């Protein structure tokens, strides 16, 4: 039992309490203030947040894999150290988010089980392979870039522990995005082969990165409620548009192109127009048939099982120390 | 199955970090650990990867007592309506220096 999860299944004793709770909740949302773990909240709000935050945590944990794939083959010691720091950050982000979700009354263990048995989802972007070193750059620039676009407004999410976790995460993500861009910059200013490698990585990650914002607004049934609850501040399409507007000049600065023939500046709208994304592919990957879904899950299960002895040893050691301390205290009592 | 129980038995700790000398420890977040020593090490790895701290406290979450958010009004009642506890309550001295 923890102080932060004590509230979780406390039944509301009667209808009046529930009504008062709802009124207070509505008032806090209307004032654009924050909900803390022990405040009354509607069940739908709690469930939505548990799903969203735990999926987000799982994405950070699974997201370590495509990048870690290149740690042993990073082109220099400096690059290797940077990549290790980045992958370690992703683990940290997962842990911040698991902690935030736990304040809503779900246990860490339950979330881990949901990931391992496949009942919980994670971002479909991590089911794509990292074929070359340039992919590490494309992930940092495009995938982390899209994540930041999504996450900055989440710092103001109405559920306070989620917002607090996102503040920490956003601070750290900006290093990820810049280091990714710099990897691509070095490659695009290197040999023709290196530049071609960078272009190939961008070509493969552009579409999936844009899909990270989720389906188009007219096909995103939960968005409206999340926006009413001040969890989500901007629609999927709004965020996607901002992202495209941001990366076009960044791609130009790299000397690389974005693989979209329909991409062009629209003077009237003051935004870039871009082509339809491959939503059939998106659904296929979400349903588990992407290029790396099986591999990612298998690796996570193996890592969990292979780590069991460490967890067992730590628990056994803690138990032994506690017993010794208790014995020492007893001896002192007897001696006195 | 047995490993699940082991995970579940790791208690929750709340982490407080002092960002630099002279400042208070501030709540940074929480984590699970089998004992106090591991909790401190995990807290260092999780919450001070970028020199965020010069000192860390970890406290078993069970040991923290907190006020009830529902009784907010009542619990903090006595400080309400006591504007005379603030310097701004006293206005006669306006224009008088160093007061």
> Within the largest sheet of chain B, what's the order of strands?
2-1-3
Number of helices of chain B: 3
Distance N terminus to C terminus of chain A? 35 Å
Secondary structure category of chain B: alpha+beta
Structural class of chain A: mainly alpha
Q: Which range does the strand content of chain A fall in?
A: under 5%
- The radius of gyration over CA of chain B amounts to 22 Å
Q: What kind of sheet is the major sheet of chain A?
A: 2 strands, antiparallel
Globally, the shape of chain B reads elongated
Q: What's the rounded overall pLDDT mean of chain B?
A: 86
Gross geometry of chain A:
globular
Q: Which blocks of ≥5 consecutive residues of chain A have pLDDT under 50?
A: 1-8
H/E series of chain B, N to C?
Answer: HEEHEH
The mean pLDDT of chain A is 93
Number of helices of chain A: 13
Oligomeric form: heterodimer
Strand content of chain B: 15-25%
Strand count, sense and closure of the main sheet of chain B? 3 strands, antiparallel
- Level of helix content of chain B? 10-25%
Q: Which runs of chain B of at least 5 residues are low in confidence (pLDDT < 50)?
A: 1-7
